[in-house]
Amino acid sequence: MEIADPRPNDLRHETGPFDVIGDVHGCHTELVHLLRDLGYRVEPDGAHHPDGRTALFVGDLVDRGPDTPAVLRLVMGMVKAGTAFSVRGNHEEKLVKALKGRDVEANHGLERSLAQLAGETPGFRREVLDFCDSLVPHYVLDGGRLVIAHAGLPERYHGVESARMRSLALWGVGTGELDARGFPVRHPWADDYQGAATVLYGHTPIEDPQWVNGTLCLDTGCVFGGRLTALRYPERELVSVPARRTWYEQ
């Protein structure tokens, strides 16, 4: 009897403890500092925690910042070694299309990733494409008690494979408005969330993470001069490092 493969988003068997890291956007120096503050031993092509903790990245590793290749080299090494997992962000989505030669607008920082990757070897660019293309939009972890998705995800889509899940996890739902800083306003799905799982996400930069119905946004706008933030899970302890400078003007 043939046994069906598990769903690609199913990591319920991974129970942590975890360090969930917000949108990096090419900020390699800040990522190294944050990992070290979290207790990781960092090398150029990987990092591990002496206590066996696992890093979880909520997507948008790439674009806008000063060194997307170095961020990818570090995170890809961690994922390969089993010391990290990452979901796909909307910026990885566009980078994959660009690296496949599809017609996408090289804007919102994609132009910087492409310029930086142009200085790398064809073999490394192939590794980047394969890695980013392998990322799934969300993971269910810790026996179903934890979900990570780049833009968040309502409970009815947890563990589901569908086009709607993918759209929500990568992009959320925009209102068509911009906030005072020029960022798109997203539909506040967390205000109505009543799920049992903790949902951790990024995508929309905020100044200070605030728990809303068991959900938390961890994008504190490092690339825009804010901070790079992680949440220790299950401890619920926030750890952040300041940006060295404003790397990208919105």
UniProtKB/TrEMBL annotation:
Pfam families: Metallophos. Coiled coil: none annotated. GO terms for cellular component: cytoplasm. Gene3D superfamilies: 3.60.21.10. Residues 87-92 form the Serine/threonine specific protein phosphatases domain. It comes from the Bacteria. SUPFAM superfamilies: Metallo-dependent phosphatases. One of its GO terms (molecular function) is phosphatase activity. InterPro entries: Ap4A_hydrolase (IPR050126), Calcineurin-like_PHP (IPR004843), Metallo-depent_PP-like (IPR029052), MPP_PrpE-like (IPR041780), Ser/Thr-sp_prot-phosphatase (IPR006186). CDD domains: MPP_Prp_like. This is Serine/threonine specific protein phosphatases domain-containing protein. It comes from Saccharothrix tamanrassetensis. The lineage of its organism: Bacteria, Bacillati, Actinomycetota, Actinomycetes, Pseudonocardiales.
